[in-house]
Structure formats: structure tokens, C-alpha cells
Amino acid sequence: MKNKNKKWVNYCLAASAFFLLVSFGSVSAQPSTENINGVPVNMAMEEQLDDYLNSLGEEEDSRAILFNVLENISPKTPVATRARAKSYEVSWYYYEGETELAFEKLDELLALAENSEISDVKAEAQATRVEILQMEGKYGEAFLLLNDVEIPLSNARMPRVRYYGHNLISRVYADWNRYDDALRHLLLAQDAVNETNNERTPIRQQYLDYSIAIIQSELKNWEGSLKTINKAIQSAKQNELEYDLPDFYLHKSYVEAGMDEREASLVSLRKAYQAAVKDEREYLLPVILNNFGDHYMSEKKWEEARSHLREALELAEEVEDIWMAQTIHFNLGFIDVHQGNTEVGLEEMREALEFYREEDIKTEVEGLLGELAEAYELAGQHQKQAETLKQQMELMEELYQSDQQQNLANLQQLYESKDKEQQIELLERQNELKQQLLEINEQRNLIWLLLGIVAVFAALFVFLMYRKARRANLRLKEANNLLADQSRRDPLTGLWNRRALQEEMEARKQHGERREAAAHSDGLILLDIDFFKRINDKYGHAAGDKVLIEISQRLQKECRASDKLIRWGGEEFLFLVRNVSSADLEEMSERILKAIAKEPVVYEGQEIFVTTTIGFIRLPFADIPEHEMDWEKVLQVADMALYTGKAHGRNRACGVTDLYVEYGTARSVLESDLSEALNKNWISMVTIEGPESLNRTV
User: Fold this and answer.
1) Model confidence over 360-393: pLDDT tens digits?
2) How far is CA 444 from CA 447, 451, 462, 472, 681, in A?
3) Known catalytic residues?
């Protein structure tokens, strides 16, 4: 039984995301104010740019408005307004298919931001850059540039910019299955929306509720997702913004099915159908009717399921939705198999599967293979069932390898690009200083020519020029050292950053360093501050920064000279621990738990109690050669162990210690679902509880 509900919901969200993002106008303000939350703007132009957003979809009108603003921009125009207009210009050219021109305009926008001290301008420019990379399919490059957006965004004051930046970051994290981070940024975007009060506020709030509900369902937080989508439905009715109601009810049905509330799910499907008919959204009806069929198939009400699926097929063919039509054919074939019309049903399922193979939609083929294998089992054709399951496993492996290779290629491309940028910048600074040295030498030659005439003055000039040359050399050396260190340090805490770890691991690989897992292997300790969002919400972001700085100082005291402490991102820290045994790694994890929780962080006279959750593991893991399971894969296991600790109450350390089966057997599970590996007794996990006396929530 193939249910297209989840895929359809995510598609609708992605399709509407851009229009809802760009439709976020500036906050309501009087034209005479000439600033938004203290950021200088040209209010008349800001209102014109709002008109441009409202006119999107009417191509000629929107183009005329945007380019009228661009033609009237001058160096006297406030930089925030210039940046906003240029950001829209980049998107305009990109969507018009003029990619090369779009990137030229993007370079102009980035140069404008580089010369500005306004955080909103820097955040908008970097967010535009990340969004264009996302649309280009350069997901790895976009992901690694998130810090360039988050740093200025933390100090941005304009609600429009904060909404845009946090919404974009949320989408990038969702693409990388970092749903906790995606949800955190959606909530920050919601804070920005709550600062506005205009006609578009309810639309933006509905969109955010829908987005949050989808992320909550990805996290299997069914109750939270149901509460959020009900809020969106209520808002749509109250504000007479009912166009998206079919999508809302469709997602509600999906959530209720996940909660095994089948009757409630069926009621929501009926409401989705009624709303889609009312708003004449014919293209959505086949999806809803297919879900009806799926519901009745799960209850083994075959004739009711067949009736809905045939109606869905007819509508899918009317709207020329060939992909949905093939899915419906597949479901109809499955019903035939259940009702004893085996060969006819299997043939219809195979034809639908072949369609998706020819379309090269491998993810869809993988899911259909599993259901075809189930049909073969029902038909008693066990040999074909085994062959089909084997094809499914091979395709799963192929998809996984393809994703991994693409992600690694994107990340490598970005690192190389950043290295080249920094090398170019360093060379430019060196050339400037060398030019100064050349000028000094010319002046020195002039002094020697005049030496016979004015010996005293010549000696003085030589002395002055020598001092100047020495200072220039010192500046060159200092600039080189500063550039090298800044590129590898986190600006808030002063700790090493991800780039530093990447360089460390690359050097480790190039030097052929391999450590025996028995007694002298390395270790990875990944930790995440518990309830960090609550700290920001209750005490403010300045308090959050104070907590990060204080925690980093406590962690440094636990860090040996041979170890490396990295700020991994947000509230996450990572230890690379050299030459440790399993016992040492457990002991160090316990010390970290105690060091963080031993006393509260004091901010403006208030005590903030802090705990952490840890995932730790040895590198290499379980004697597996690192060319088979490298440090990134090992760190991924530690990350899953950390989230296991989060799921079981936080304030604890969870370490994966042993592997009891061959790595080839457990590889796919280790890289995707640690709980399944634990349930199968393929691995062992050590749990260390944190200090109970200080285990308080914020």
C-alpha cells in the first residue's frame, strides 16, 4: 500500500516556501520614521519593495516596481534598503533563468555587505547566497556556510531579515535531517513574526505553524504536530485564509494515522477532500482519494478501497498527474493480489514499478520493491519475494552511497574553495606590504645618492627607513599569523572550529597515523548543552552567550595539552582525545558531566543551572580500519548515542563501546538507527548518569 501523503506534504511546503519567505514585508512603520528598529532605511523605497512582493505573480507589474527602485538607488540610499533591493534583484534574475547575471549581482551584494557594519545587511546578503546555492543543488556548500548567516543574524534587529534568515536556515537543516535544529530556527522565525502586526502577519503565522507541524512529525512528536496543525487550521478559519486548508487537513490525517487514530484520520481526510473541492484544487484530489484507498486497505475493506482508488485514478488522468496515476495502479494491483486475482494484480504492480524505473526515481522504486515483495509473499511466490527483497537492499545501498558521495563531494568542494579564497586574500595583503617595502627601498637609494651632500640628514633618513621596513616586516608576519589563526577559531568562545578539526584529521590521514583500538586509540566526545533554547528564551541571547563562554572555559580545564576542543556548532562541543583507553574515555566523560553541572553560571545576578548530554566513542571503532569507517562515520554514531541520551532524560553520557557482529552486517544500521543496533544486541552501550543534585531545568 503506497501512501503519498508525506511526500505530497513536503512537496507543497517546499513549493510555497519561497513565495511565503519573499512575501515577508518590512514591519509596519510610519514613512517619517526612516528606520526600522534603529536600522536606517529609505521608508518610501521600503514601501515600494513591499508592493513588489505583493505583486509577485503579475510579472510585468512586479518587474516594473523592482527595477524602478533599483534605478533610483544611489550611494546616499541607506545600505539596508540597498541590500534588500539587490537581494530581490539576485532572485529575480535567477528565477528568470539568467544564472550568470544572478551570480554577478550576488557578488555585488556580498561586496556591499563586506563594507557595512550593519548586522542585518550582512545577514541578508549571506542568506541570499545560501539560498541561491540551495537552488543550485549545492547542498553541502550551503550547509557549511550557515555560520556566515547565523553570526550576523544573532545581532540583526529587523524582523523581516530575522524571519528570512531563520526560515532559510531551518530549511537547510531539514535537508540534512537535522530536525531539532530546523525546529529551533523555525521558532526564532516565529518570534520575528510576532513583532509584526499587519495584513500579512496571519499568512506568515499559518505558514510557520504548518512548517513546524511537519518538522514535529519528522521527529515523531505526533501530539505536538497535531496541536500545531490544529492551530493553523483554526487560524485559517478565523482569518478567512482557507486556501491551504486541504494541505492542513491532509497533514493532520497523516499525523493521526501515525498516532494510530484511524477514525480521526479518516475524518480529517474527508475534510481535506471537501476543502479541496470547495477551492477547486483538482490536482490535490487524487492524492486525497489515494489516501482514502490506503486507509481502507489497512482495514482490509478492499471494495471500498478499490472504489476510492478508481475515482482517484480517473481524476489523476484528468489533471495529467502520471506519477500519482502509477501509484494508484500499484495500489489497485495490491488489492487484486489480496482478493486472489494474483497474476493480474502482480502484473499491474510490476508495470507501475517499471514506470518509476524508467523515470529514474530511485527512492520511489526502493519503496515499491518492498511492497511488491509483500505481494509475492501473499501469492506464495517466495523465490520472487527473495529476489525482490535483494533488489531493494541493493538499491538502498546504492542510494545511501550516492548520497554520501554527493555530500562528501560538496563538502570537499567548499573546503577547497574557502582555502583558495583565504590564500588569495593573504597574497593580496602580502603584495600590499611588499609594495611598501619596494617604496622604502627606493627612498633608501635616494638617501644614498644624497649622502655626500647632506651626510647628517642622510644618516637620519636611513635610520627612519630601516625602522619603517622592520615594522612592515613585523606587520606582514603578524598578518600571516592572524589570518591563519582566525580561520580556525570560533569568534565567541575562542575554541577551535570545524575547519581546525578537518585540518587535523586530514593531517592524521596524510601522515598515515593508525592507532590500535586495544589500548592507545583516540576518542571522540560530543556534547550538547541541555535545554539551551530555554536559556535563550528566559534570560536572553546575551545570557546564552555567557553560558557558552563559561562552559567553554570549564571544558578547557578538562582538556589535556594533547587533546583538541572544538565548538562544533550552536550549543555543541567536541573533544578529540588522544591516546585513551575505554576506561579513560568513560572517566573523562563523567568529569565533563560534573564540571558543567557543578555550579550555576551567574549572569546579572541570576543563577543559571546547566547540564549536558554526551555521546562518546573510540576512534578507530571496534578495530574497524578507518578506510572503511572513517572519523566522520564514527562521529555520526557518537551523535546518535548523544540523542539516545537526550531521549532518556538528558544529563548523562552514552558511549558505544563494542561491536558484536561483522561491520558489513551492521553498517547500514550503525549509520542510520542506533536503537535498532541495540535492540539486536549488535553493539553495547555504557550510560553514565550526571550529578542528580544539580539536575535542574531552566
Assistant:
1) 877 788 888 888 888 888 888 889 888 888 888 8
2) 5, 10, 6, 15, 78
3) 571
